[in-house]
């Protein structure tokens, strides 16, 4: 089958160690050359991929993370988190998962979540004696929550393409989001508990110690609160929240911490530009690859194949989730939604599959896509902030991928995990 | 000697470009906060900001990519290559830089063709700026050129200059 | 197949015009005895809405369907149908295809380098949506932050004292929900399909703008097509042009019923209200249109002669 031949080609090209954006770009361009005989207009497609207001979250949250790290706001935040959970096994890991979940309520993007929490949490976890791959795993896995807990960029896109209520999708994401957060936290606890060299546990902090820690990080804690309140009170949109959050962090760093000047700001802007460039070039190349797959009608043909199997709802969904999982190894979340949704939708309507339920299954699967190699944006995000080898990052996220597959299975077996809240809210 | 000279020139060009990219980051920060303030406090939304931000994003990526490439290696899947010896790693780096030159060169040439087409066609944006589309699209060939220069300079250093 | 016709459009698969285009594709395949293979790429899966025009002109894809105002200031005369309260009378909409006005615009498009095949009437009723209080009189708009349509039509909103805001479509729902925006303006069926009724209590139905999706093809591809196949295309395109009118009317009626059923409080502008809004809203938009369009007066006269 041509589809699997193409995927094998991508794997070989990427494993050869070429930069991801040139590897994906060359495979996409080569396929286009083979099928159309020319490459005219590819740069127009790249321009279109990059010229997207909704991607603003990536540079702005990167900037925010840089400001929080360089301005030492984060040190206080983590000292507090550590004080609160230092008596638990894997305490800091749990704190990181919860930080990811909280940040996900502000950010609609998983890359931005992994970027911000990762830049902050990874150095701290290493400092407190976590093994590198464990630290990368927590952030890589926890960061994926960004698109499951509302607001969520991919949910909006899916809602628009499929004519599904975005409000219902947001509601439906809440309980699965909390469920995945809980599963990840329990895993952190067990992982550390049964590790051959568990991190050091300390005495439970006293109330006065906790209070003192909270007071010290008061300013740092106002940042996410400010962003959340501003967003839900209608001051700014989810995308604007990224810029407002960065500005708020800047104000706190300059006025409260007095640890930040123009020189530091310029350095943060330069780092943010570099990180954004590296990540978004991959997004653009994945977009080109997706465009070529679409014009070759590969998703259409595979969907027709699956439909032709004549299986029931669960069989169809399982096959479809398998397909999306495979696509997710190579493509980026936005591309997967744009390519598969219009193709799958008519079949779903025919089988009377609830589009809200499917949307949540899709988003959990997209979370997987963010951490499966070879093309996993959260893997690259962690690589961009730590320069760690991909293999080490992958080793860390594998358990989280397994747990996500488990969660996917749970939501598939018990649709009410997703559908109960929107149904209750509607009544 | 030639390698050092090329290296210095390339570094200067890429640094200039990434400065513009960093300027674009700060411009986005200021524009968004300003437009939020105008809309919320003064009830005067600034309707062209979302379009301008889109072009600034393209600028960040196309002008920042070359410097990011020079600053270290670009994001790559190193699962296999990190097990290679120094010779294997060198070959991988050279292949990677050649691929960047190929893609950069393609973006330069095809980007210029796209710019020319849009200019002849007279395509304008439908947003508030109603800008001729070929102007922001110039960022694509510019980024292609920068990537080619950066990769070429690294290649010179790897092959002509002293081995690391 | 002798020829492959790939068409890109931005509509979700459930959109009534998207469904008509699927039927158009089937008509062409069967009428040509399979000599033309039609492939539809909807929902921006191949090209984003703003890219379709250049993609067709450059031959990256054979055909596309775009809203007429996608041409913006590239062919400013194409904006004529969205001028406030100008072409929203159903009789005139019926007479538009095949009229000198349509022919004039088709000629403009041909000069730009695309061949127009069909005018798909998509909307003549919009709805002003709001949460706190309904937008009935022109005074109600004063200081209201509203998501507009584009720079041209937003002049009309400014004229009633509103503060139009531009925002990418995916952000609008949440902006209306959280109160970042006070009000929305959208096509009637879109208000239903985009679920605005979930976050907006009131809706004022207004015949403010007529919107067309039009199907256009690459001229080189079209010229190379065998003459009898070109006839097949023309016949199918005539049929879809005619079918679009009752389909859009039915979709609008259905949307109105559904919005009411979902609890939205709808008000339809009366003839007096329409007249009052026309007096305020039309002149500034007309002025901007004529300034931007070299042949603006010509197309206006042709349209007024319908
Ligand atoms: Na989120
Ligand atoms: Na992946």
Plain-language structure description:
The complex is a heterotrimer of chains A (427), B (164) and C (306). Chain A has a domain at 47-276 and 376-423. In chain A, helix 7 (110-127) runs antiparallel to helix 8 (132-143) and helix 9 packs across helix 17. Chain A contains 21 helices and no strands. Chain A has helices at residues 2-15, 20-36, 42-50, 57-70, 73-85, 91-104, 110-127, 132-143, 153-162, 166-193, 207-216, 218-232, 238-256, 262-295, 298-308, 313-330, 333-351, 355-371, 377-386, 390-413, 416-426. The mean pLDDT of chain A is 88. With 427 residues, chain A is mainly α. By secondary structure, chain B is mostly helical. Chain B starts with a helix and ends in a 5-residue tail after the last helix. Helix content of chain B is 76%, strand content 0%. Chain C is an alpha/beta fold and 306 residues long. Chain C contains 11 helices and 11 strands. In chain C, the strands form 2 sheets. Chain C has a 6-stranded mixed β-sheet. In chain C, helix 1 links the parallel strand 1 (3-8) and strand 2 (36-41). In chain C, helix 4 (100-112) packs antiparallel against helix 11 and helix 5 packs across helix 10 (271-292). The mean pLDDT of chain C is 95. The chains are: A mainly alpha (427), B mainly alpha (164), C alpha/beta (306). Chains in contact: A-B, A-C, B-C. The interface between A and B is large, with 63 and 62 residues. The complex binds sodium ion (2 copies).
Which helices and strands appear, and what pairs or packs with what?
The complex is a heterotrimer of chains A (427), B (164) and C (306).
Chain A: H1 2-15, H2 20-36, H3 42-50, H4 57-70, H5 73-85, H6 91-104, H7 110-127, H8 132-143, H9 153-162, H10 166-193, H11 207-216, H12 218-232, H13 238-256, H14 262-295, H15 298-308, H16 313-330, H17 333-351, H18 355-371, H19 377-386, H20 390-413, H21 416-426
Helix pairs in contact in A: 1-2, 2-14, 3-14, 4-7, 4-13, 4-14, 5-6, 5-11, 6-7, 6-8, 6-10, 7-8, 7-19, 8-19, 8-20, 9-17, 9-18, 10-18, 10-20, 10-21, 12-13, 14-17, 14-19, 15-16, 15-17, 16-17, 16-18, 17-18, 18-20
Chain B: H1 2-41, H2 49-71, H3 86-121, H4 134-137, H5 139-159
Helix pairs in contact in B: 1-2, 1-5, 2-5, 3-5
Chain C: E1 3-8, H1 16-31, E2 36-41, H2 52-58, E3 63-67, H3 90-95, H4 100-112, E4 115-123, E5 126-130, E6 145-147, H5 151-159, E7 163-165, H6 169-178, E8 183-187, H7 188-193, E9 202-206, E10 211-217, H8 219-224, H9 227-261, E11 265-268, H10 271-292, H11 296-304
Parallel strand pairs in C: 1-2, 1-3, 6-7, 6-8, 9-11
Antiparallel strand pairs in C: 3-10, 4-10, 5-8, 5-9
Bound molecules: sodium ion (2 copies).
The site of one sodium ion has 6 residues of chain A, from helix 16.
Transmembrane segments (chain A): 6-33, 53-74, 94-122, 134-161, 167-190, 218-235, 241-257, 277-296, 302-327, 334-351, 357-376, 397-421
Protein name (chain A): TRAP transporter large permease protein
Domain TRAP C4-dicarboxylate transport system permease DctM subunit (chain A): 8-416
């Amino acid at each position: 089958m041509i589809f699997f031949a193409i995927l094998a080609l991508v794997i070989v090209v990427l494993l050869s160690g070429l930069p991801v954006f040139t590897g994906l770009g060359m495979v996409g361009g080569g396929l286009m050359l083979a099928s159309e005989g020319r490459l005219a207009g590819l740069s127009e497609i790249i321009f279109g991929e990059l010229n997207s207001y909704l991607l603003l979250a990536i540079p702005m949250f990167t900037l925010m993370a840089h400001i929080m790290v360089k301005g030492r706001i984060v040190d206080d935040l983590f000292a507090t988190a550590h004080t609160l959970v230092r008596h638990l096994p894997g305490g800091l890991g749990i704190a990181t998962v919860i930080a990811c979940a909280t940040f996900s309520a502000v950010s609609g993007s998983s890359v931005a979540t992994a970027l911000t929490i990762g830049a902050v949490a990874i150095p701290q976890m290493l400092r407190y004696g976590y093994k590198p791959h464990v630290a990368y795993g927590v952030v890589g896995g926890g960061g994926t929550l960004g698109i499951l807990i509302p607001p969520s960029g991919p949910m909006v896109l899916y809602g628009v393409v499929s004519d599904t209520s975005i409000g219902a999708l947001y509601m439906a994401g809440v309980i699965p989001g909390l469920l995945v957060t809980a599963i990840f936290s329990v895993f952190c606890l067990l992982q550390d508990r049964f590790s051959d060299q568990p991190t050091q546990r300390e005495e439970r902090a006293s109330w006065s110690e906790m209070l003192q820690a909270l007071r010290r990080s008061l300013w740092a804690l106002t940042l996410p609160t400010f962003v959340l309140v501003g967003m839900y009170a209608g001051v700014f949109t989810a995308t604007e929240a990224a810029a407002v959050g960065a500005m708020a962090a800047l104000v706190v760093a300059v006025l409260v911490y007095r640890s930040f000047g123009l020189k530091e700001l310029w350095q943060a802007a330069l780092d943010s530009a570099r990180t954004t460039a590296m990540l978004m070039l991959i997004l653009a190349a994945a977009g080109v690859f997706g465009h070529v797959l679409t014009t070759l009608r590969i998703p259409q043909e595979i969907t027709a194949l699956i439909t032709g199997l004549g299986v029931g709802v669960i069989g169809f969904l399982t096959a479809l989730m398998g397909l999306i999982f495979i696509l997710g190894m190579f493509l980026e979340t936005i591309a997967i939604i744009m390519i598969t949704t219009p193709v799958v939708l008519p079949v779903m309507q025919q089988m009377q599959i609830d589009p809200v339920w499917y949307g949540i299954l899709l988003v959990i699967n997209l979370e997987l896509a963010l951490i499966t190699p070879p093309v996993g944006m959260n893997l690259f995000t962690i690589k961009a902030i730590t320069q760690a080898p991909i293999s080490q990052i992958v080793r860390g996220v594998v358990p989280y991928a397994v747990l996500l597959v488990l969660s996917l299975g749970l939501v598939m077996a018990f649709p009410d995990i997703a559908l109960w809240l929107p149904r209750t809210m509607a009544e | 000697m030639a390698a050092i000279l090329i290296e210095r020139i390339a570094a200067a060009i890429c640094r200039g470009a990434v400065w513009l990219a960093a300027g674009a980051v700060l411009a986005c920060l200021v524009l968004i906060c300003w437009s939020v303030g105008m809309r919320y406090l003064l009830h005067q939304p600034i309707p062209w900001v979302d379009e301008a931000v889109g072009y600034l994003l393209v600028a960040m990526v196309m002008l920042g990519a070359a410097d990011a490439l020079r600053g270290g290696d670009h994001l790559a899947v190193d699962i296999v290559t990190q097990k290679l010896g120094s010779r294997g790693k060198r070959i991988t780096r050279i292949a990677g830089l050649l691929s960047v030159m190929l893609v950069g060169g393609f973006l330069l040439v095809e980007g210029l063709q796209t710019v020319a087409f849009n200019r002849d066609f007279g395509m304008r944006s439908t947003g508030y700026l109603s800008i001729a589309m070929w102007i922001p699209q110039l960022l694509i060939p510019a980024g292609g050129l920068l990537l080619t220069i950066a990769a070429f300079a690294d290649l010179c250093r790897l092959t002509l200059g002293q081995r690391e | 197949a002798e020829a492959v016709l790939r068409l890109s459009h931005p509509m979700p698969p459930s959109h009534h015009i998207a469904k008509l285009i699927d039927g158009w594709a089937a008509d062409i395949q069967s009428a040509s005895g399979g000599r033309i293979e039609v492939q539809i790429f909807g929902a921006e899966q191949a090209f984003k809405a703003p890219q379709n025009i250049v993609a067709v002109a450059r031959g990256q894809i054979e055909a596309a369907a775009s809203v007429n105002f996608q041409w913006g200031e590239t062919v400013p005369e194409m904006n004529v149908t969205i001028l406030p309260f100008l072409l929203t009378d159903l009789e005139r909409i019926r007479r538009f295809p095949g009229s000198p006005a349509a022919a004039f615009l088709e000629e403009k498009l041909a000069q730009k380098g695309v061949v127009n095949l069909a005018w798909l009437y998509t909307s003549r009723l919009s709805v002003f949506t709001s949460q706190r209080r309904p937008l009935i009189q022109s005074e109600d708009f004063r200081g209201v932050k509203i998501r507009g349509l584009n720079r041209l039509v937003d002049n009309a909103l400014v004229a009633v004292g509103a503060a139009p805001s531009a925002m990418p479509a995916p952000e609008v729902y949440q902006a209306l929900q959280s109160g970042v925006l006070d009000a929305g303006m959208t096509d009637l069926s879109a208000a239903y399909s985009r679920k605005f009724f979930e976050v907006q209590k009131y809706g004022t139905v207004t015949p403010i703008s007529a919107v067309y999706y039009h199907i256009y093809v690459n001229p080189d591809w079209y010229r190379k097509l065998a003459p009898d196949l070109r006839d097949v295309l023309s016949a199918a395109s005539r049929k879809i042009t005619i079918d679009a009118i009752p389909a859009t009317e039915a979709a609008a009626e259905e949307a109105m019923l559904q919005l009411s059923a979902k609890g939205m409080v709808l008000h339809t502008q009366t003839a007096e209200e329409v007249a009052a809004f026309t007096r305020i809203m039309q002149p500034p938009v007309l002025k901007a249109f004529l300034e931007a369009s070299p042949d603006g007066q010509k197309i206006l006269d042709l349209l007024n002669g319908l």
